[in-house]
Design brief:
Order of helices and strands: HHEEEEEEE
Number of strands: 7
Helix content: under 10%
Number of helices: 2
Radius of gyration: 45 Å
Shape: rod-shaped
Low-confidence stretches: none
Largest sheet: 4 strands, antiparallel
Length: 245
Amino acid sequence: MIRAHLRSNVVGYLALFVALSGTAVALPATNTVFSDDIVNGEVTTRDISDTNGVRSADVRDDDKKGGGLAAIDLARGSVGSSEIATDGVGSPEIEADAVRGSEIATDGVGSPEIAANAVGASEIGTDSVGKDAIGIDEVGANELDEVHEHESSEVIVEDGTAHDGAYGIGSVRVACLFDDEDLLSVSIDWIDTNDHAERMLADVEIDRGTTASEADAAVVRGAFDGGGGAANPARFIAHATCLQS
């Protein structure tokens, strides 16, 4: 009975066996798997060769829809200088305040990298610019704050004997008038020498204000060897040139 049943239903049982066990078919040749054979999202990093993986030619251009690589596609530290073409990174690729001192090599920024009028007072540290950093004739009136000149009272210099090498000395204190002024220079202006050329600025003693409320000042000494004594002295006025900051 069983034998007869199996003989009469052998085709049906064979079909059931095939349906339940599945089939494996070898692909006939290379290059036979195409894009539409792969389920979307099924290719992961481990499926891509380390030596013959994704290259520039495999990445869609930025000007095409859905093209290019975004930041989310790149691992941290994966893009180095060897991956960037010369002059490949410009201002549009850099966020505001994204580049700081630690990202810039020593002497890496020169004049060609700085736009005209791009560096102001806020970009320059205190006492960071010395005379060696300033070109000849580079600083003009436009680069300076207000410059003021202050003068002293008139000074009388007496000298007993003319042309004897012994100079009469007169001194006076001249100062900047405001505590936010810096003393730049001092000079003297001889206003009466009785036609004698033997006069000079003998000495200057600078007194920098030590507190915020003290202005810079200087003691100025003038020397005269023109004779004439008290009856015919020389006179001068001292000048202080001050820069208001």
